[in-house]
Design brief:
6-stranded parallel β-sheet; Elongation Factor Tu (Ef-tu), domain 3; 12 strands; alpha/beta; 3 helices; 6-stranded antiparallel β-sheet
């Protein structure tokens, strides 16, 4: 069974859209961009969350959407600075790698599925992805947007609110996806988005071993 250890909460902020920005002391934890950490509530409910901080940061950060019936997110929402939280060691299989010459990284994210890509951007600022397709419901859901400044091709979509960004879903921007069998395509977020991206890429003869995904479930 996975062992859990207490880590102190260094900061906890609540956005108007219901996203919790959680910052914990790091201690001696080592991780790779894309890794998750399981968080335990006081009644031993467990939920994995992707790390959004960089590998060189001296803290661990997470983006957590508060869900009405989410057993762990509700528990976290009632905590405050300096409280302790039980967390596991990092684990994961969705780990975006730095791109190489003649190869591009293309990222697709919805909602808090942006977390592993934020970790990548903070960890490898000199090797950003070629493109990021990022979709949220409302402008308040856009977090850490300053970290996107180094991305050459940024496509932000807002589905439920008028804004200066594209109004609609990220799947409506498929015509801008750089297509090559040398590229790596990473998808994180809602299952429906991931399925649509995978179907589109496969229809363009992108091999399965170049498409990576992680589905985010609410909890």
């Amino acid at each position: 069974m996975t062992s859990f250890k207490n880590h102190k909460i260094l900061g906890i902020n609540h956005s108007n859209s219901g996203i919790i920005e959680l910052v914990l002391e790091r201690k001696n934890i080592l991780f790779k961009p894309g890794d998750c950490i399981a968080i335990s509530s006081n009644d031993e409910k467990i939920r994995p969350y992707s790390i959004s901080s960089g590998i060189n940061d001296n803290f661990l950060s997470f983006l957590i959407r508060k869900i009405d019936k989410g057993q762990v997110s509700q528990y976290i929402s009632n905590l405050k600075k300096n409280d302790d939280l039980l967390i596991s060691k990092p684990f994961g299989w969705f780990n975006p790698k730095e791109s190489k010459i003649n190869q591009k990284n293309i990222f697709f994210a919805t909602g808090t599925g942006i977390a592993p890509f934020l970790s990548y951007l903070k960890s490898y600022p000199k090797n950003p992805p070629d493109s990021l397709f990022y979709g949220v419901r409302k402008i308040d859901d856009l977090l850490d947007i300053n970290n996107f400044s180094m991305i050459k091709n940024l496509y932000i979509s807002i589905s439920q609110e008028e804004s200066n960004y594209h109004t609609g879903r990220i799947t409506e921007n498929f015509s801008y996806i750089p297509l090559s069998k040398n590229n790596n395509y990473y998808c994180c977020g809602r299952e429906s988005m991931i399925n649509e991206v995978r179907s589109f890429l496969k229809s363009k003869a992108i091999p399965n071993n170049k498409i990576f995904n992680e589905v985010f479930f609410n909890g």
